[in-house]
Amino acid sequence: MLPTTLRCPAVGRLMFASFAFSLATSTLSLPAQTPSDSDKTSNRAQVSTTRQTPTVLAIRRAAPAVVNIHGQKTVRATAAGMAGASGPDSFRQVNGMGTGVVIDPRGYVITNFHVVEDVDDILVTLDDGQTTTAELIAARVRNDLALIKVNVDRPLPTIPRGTSSDLMVGESVIAIGNAFGYVHTSTQGIISALHRDVPVNESQEYHDLIQISAGINPGNSGGPLLNIDGEMIGVNVAVRVGAQQIAFAIPMDQVVDIVTEMIDEHNEKRLLTGLRTNGGPRDGDGVTVANVSASSPAARDGLKPGDRVVRVGSQPVDDRLDFALAMLNVSPGEQLEFAVERGGRQIDLAMRTEQPPASSTASTVEEMAWSRIGIQVRPVAESTIRRLNTRMRTKYRGGLYIAGVRPGSPADQQGITTGDVLLGIHGWQTSNMADLAGILEHPDMQRGPKAKFYIVRREQTLFGHLQIAAQADSSARR
Fold this sequence. Notes:
With 478 residues, this protein is an alpha+beta fold.
C-alpha cells in the first residue's frame, strides 16, 4: 500500500533527505587529444540561439539561488531486536544533506524541515562554492517546511517566484538539487497530476501535492521545482520508492502561505506592532492593513485599516511574504519607516515597535508544564548556555533547566531526568518560559499529539517523543 512504500528522497525507510554516504575513488578515461584554442573558439561561436533552449535559460536563471545544505544530526541508535525501545538512551551521528532556495537577498532560505531536523550545525554551500553556517529561524513540522538564515555579509541572488495556481498537467517542469551529493543536478519532466494527497506513515500525510515525472533523488529535498520560465512553482519533497518517475512537490502558493505564517508567528513572539495584514501569495498581490489594535504602536503612529503597504524600511513590499521577511530583522524598540498608499497618494510613516507582553505569567507556565508534561523548569543562565555552546560547538540561544520530574508523567515515561536542559518541543525552541507557554498554548498542542523534544544531557544532544496531555490534569497539581 502507498503509506508503506512512499519515501522522501533519502537512504533509509523514513530518514527523508538526511543520509550518510561515501564516494568511491574511480578511474576516468580521458580522450587522447584535446581541442585546440581555435577549435574552442569555433565551438563557442556555434552555440547558437537554437541550442539555448527554454530549459537552458530556465536553469541559468534559477540556479544561482539554489544552495546545498549539509551537516551532522543526532539520531536514535536502536539496536536490532529493540525496535520498540523508547527514551533518549542511545544515539549516533550521521551525515545528512539536502537543498534550499534563497528567497531574500539577506540570506533567508526555504527548505524542508526534515533536511535540517536535528542537525547540530547547519552548513550551507552557496552557488559560488562558499560554505558558511546557517541558523534555523522557524519551522512547521506538519507541513515539512523550514526557514533558515545563512550567515553572509553580501546580498545573495534570489529565486524568481512563480505561482502554482495555473499549473497544467503535461507542462514541462525542471528540478534542481543536490542529488546524492552531486550539487546542482538538473532534471526535467512534466506535471503528471495535481492535488495529490500522499500519506507517508501513520502520523504524517502531505496534502495537495504536485506529482511530477522529473528525476528526484536523495539530497533533492527542499530544492526548487521550476516552470519552463525558470520560476519556482514548488518545493521538491518526496518520491515513491520502487516506482519510476513518480515524485512530489509542495505547490508554491502553499509554500508561501505556510512560510509567511511561520514568520508571522516568529515575529509576534518578538515584536508588538498591533498590525494585521491581508494579501495573497504571489508577487504583486500587495499587502493591505486589515486591522490596527487599539493603543498599539501601529495605532499610535498613524497606520490605518485599508492602508496598502508598499515599503518597509528600504525593502519594497509586493506580498505578505515580503512584509513578513522585512520585519525579521526589526528589534523591539526600533523605529521602522513605512510607505503606504492611502486615498490615492503615498504617505511615509514611522512606527516604533515594542516588546510584547508575556502570554502567560510564570506561575501559569509552570503549572501547565507540570500538569501536561510533568516537568518543573527554570531558565538556564546565559553563562551556562555559552559554556555548552563552547564545549559542544553549537549555537543554542537558550534552554530550560529541568528541576523536577513528576513520576508517571509523559516526561518520566520518556526518560527525562532532573538536570537535563530542554532545548525545544515540536520544532519550536524553548529558550525561555515565554517560548514554553507559546508551545503549550499552540492549537497543535491542544490536540495532544506526540511531540518531538530535544534535551542536552552531559553535553550530548538527545531527543524523544512526548505524548503531551491535551488538557491539564487536576490530579497532577502539586
